[in-house]
Amino acid sequence: MQSDQLYQEIILDHYKHPHGRGLREPYDAEAHHVNPTCGDEVTLRVTLKAGSVADVSYEGMGCSISQASASVLHDLLKGATVADSLRRHEAFAELMAGRGQIEPDETVLEDAVAFAGVARYPARVKCALLPWMAYKDALSRAISTEETP
Amino acid sequence: MTALDVESLRKDFPILERTINGKPLVYLDSGNTSQKPRQVIDAVREHYERHNANVARSVHTLGTESTAAYEGAREKIAAFVGAASASEIVFTKNSTEAINLVAHAFTPGADDPRLRLGPGDEIVVTEMEHHSNIVPWQLLARRTGATLRWFGLTDEGRLDLSDIDELINPRTKLVSVVHYSNILGTINPVELLVAKAHAVGALVLLDGSQSVPHVPVDVTALGADFVAFTGHKMLGPTGIGALWARYELLDAMPPFLGGGSMIETVSMTGTTFLPPPARFEAGTPPIAQAIGLGAAVDYLAAVGMDNVVAHEKALTAYALDALGSLPYIRIIGPTSTVDRGATISFTVQDVHPHDVGQILDDEGVQVRVGHHCARPTCVRFGVPATTRASFYLYTTTDEIDALVRGIEQVRKVFA
After folding, report:
1. Domains, in order of start, for chain A
2. Are B296 and B321 members of one domain?
3. Which end of chain A is more exposed for a tag (fewer CB within 10 A), N or C?
4. Nearest CB to B355: which of A1, A37, A64?
């Protein structure tokens, strides 16, 4: 099957059995992102503690790629330092922009390397990026809330 | 008229020989845009190779030929939709532009009382409209203070007409309704809506984007005041569409876009405008595209729209039956062939439409997935999106079989 590269077992596993799904309290900031072309939605909350990401909780509806991406994001960013989470974010965004030409670093991206094949499907890249864009948005709000006395 | 011979007709469409991912192309996205027969492609190429020049302004031979072909296309299209004359056909970019043209004719200070719109006046649409027949009216309501109202839908995907006499009332100035829904496939009761609207003095716009390509449309007999349609869904090129309206109504309407070719005399202090349709065709129009659309209506007329209807009705019955036999399929829209066209939206239980579309693409099957620019309809049926298979005169039952096999494959991967 042609889209075997797209629908890696890891992705299907995360889709069918998502990790860390559900919105949790307390949280520092929330972002709601929508993909206007397909109606996929994700609501994502970030909780920070001492320069680290204490929790990422989320709820959403959408295709296997967007929902599995949120699950992988949760695994990858929960517990990371803020700086580390941004490095991983950057690596993931770079992988998605790479049109399938980039060899992902498994030590940085772990399960997210399974998304390498998605980069070959321009129509699906935005699905994979949806929760990551929401994360970046929520994180910057969380940081600015923290900085406001 | 002999019945439609799909196998020989398919030979006119070069793209149907393509393979996708090593499989024969199964194109089930004609509601989105149709494929083009050789006759249309040739007409566009011949125009550029032999006759290309600007229209309506040249005295030279090429300009004369080009103008004759452009106006000839207008005449063919007028005849195809039953317009009283070619001057009732305004060329636009697409249906969207045609609808916006009409929306901009309504103002609080319009000379013609039919086009006067302000606070207290009402515009009526339906919950099954394409965004292009919702958003221009929301913008118009915002500009003028008028109120936008709409018909709801029944669970079967038909207009809920239970409150028709309340919705269409003496405050109503315009009823703008889709003739043939691009998402549900429903064909709406135009006669009733026109009668009710005209009884209260309201105008009626029909969005014919899906109907003009698929069913015989006689604009004069339908009795609506405006019909918008687009070329690329009816075998023609992209970038060309049309607004039909009765001439006297077009003549009462102010210009839409200003520019060259729509003026009588321009001075620095003011301008007078040409009569319709030129009044509404500012700037160099899509010439080759109009000529291509002329060739497309020649093609459809030669096949015969009654034959197109019969072919698509058989396909629809076949597909409703085949899809209806799969327990995990939910059809969104009418499940019988009565007053419905060859556009079938459905959901596959536990699988997002994007994933359905991706796996179908593996099998060479091209369908549309998403909200089909009709998000309110999706919301009405409680789904974020659907998968939509839409057929045309070149579609075969083998292709519907390929769709069903593809859906079975989808279930294997995701369920």
Report:
1. 2-144 (3.90.1010.10)
2. no
3. C
4. A64
How many CA atoms lie less than 13 Å away from B115 in the CB half-sphere?
Answer: 20
Cβ–Cβ < 8 Å for B341, B30: no
Inter-chain Cβ pairs, chain A and chain B, closer than 8 A: 54
If contacts are CB pairs under 8 Å, which of residues 7-46 in chain A contact chain B? Answer: 7, 12, 15, 37-41
Say how many domains are in chain B. Answer: 2
Q: Tell me the C-alpha to C-alpha distance, in Å, between residue B237 and each of A76, A93, A105, B182, B319.
A: 48, 37, 46, 19, 28
Task: Pinpoint the alpha helices (H) of B158-241.
Answer: 164-167, 190-199, 211-214, 219-222
| The pLDDT of residue A147 | 67
- Contacting residues of B for A38, CB less than 8 Å apart: 353-354, 369-371, 385
Q: What is the tens place of the pLDDT at every residue in A86-137?
A: 999 999 999 999 988 888 989 999 989 999 999 988 889 999 999 999 999 9
Selecting from A2, A12, A63 the residue whose C-beta is nearest the C-beta of B354 gives A63
Q: How far is A128 from chain B (nearest CA, A)?
A: 12
Q: Which of B362, B375, B384 sits opposite A2 (nearest CB)?
A: B362
For residues B209 and B338, membership in a common domain is answered with: no
Alpha carbons within 13 angstroms on the beta-carbon side of residue A27 total 20
Termini Cα distance of chain A: 56
pLDDT of residue B1: 46
Nearest CA of chain B to the CA of A144: how many Å? 33
Mean pLDDT of B18-36: 97
Identify the domain boundary among B281, B301, B321: B301
Q: Tell me whether A65 touches chain B (CB under 8 Å).
A: yes
> Is B369 found in the same domain as B264?
no
B371 contacts in A (CB within 8 Å)? 38-39
Taking residues A22-41, report their average pLDDT.
90
Domain that holds residue B220: 43-301
- Who contacts B39 (Cβ-Cβ below 8 Å, separation ≥6)? B12, B295, B296, B298, B299
Phi, psi of B230 (to 5 degrees): -130, 145
Integer distance in angstroms from the first to the last C-alpha of chain B?
Answer: 48
- Using the Cβ of A107 and the Cβ atoms of chain B, whether some distance falls under 8 Å is answered with no
- B375 and B336, same structural domain? yes
B219 and B256 part of one domain: yes
Amino acid A40: pLDDT: 86
Q: Are residues B257 and B347 in the same domain?
A: no
Are B91 and B277 in contact by the 8 Å Cβ rule? The answer is yes
For B281-337, write each residue's pLDDT tens digit. 999 999 999 999 999 999 999 999 999 999 999 999 999 999 999 999 999 999 999
Would you mind telling me the total number of residues written for chain A in this entry? 149
Q: How many CA atoms lie within 13 A of B167 on its CB side?
A: 20
Whether residue B348 is contained in a domain is answered as yes
Same domain assignment for residues B198 and B73? yes
Residues B338 and B262 both lie in one domain: no
B334 lies in some domain: yes
Mutate to test the interface with A, among B352, B375, B386 (most CBs of A within 10 A): B352
Q: How far is residue B280's CA from residue B258's CA, in Å, rounded to a whole number?
A: 8
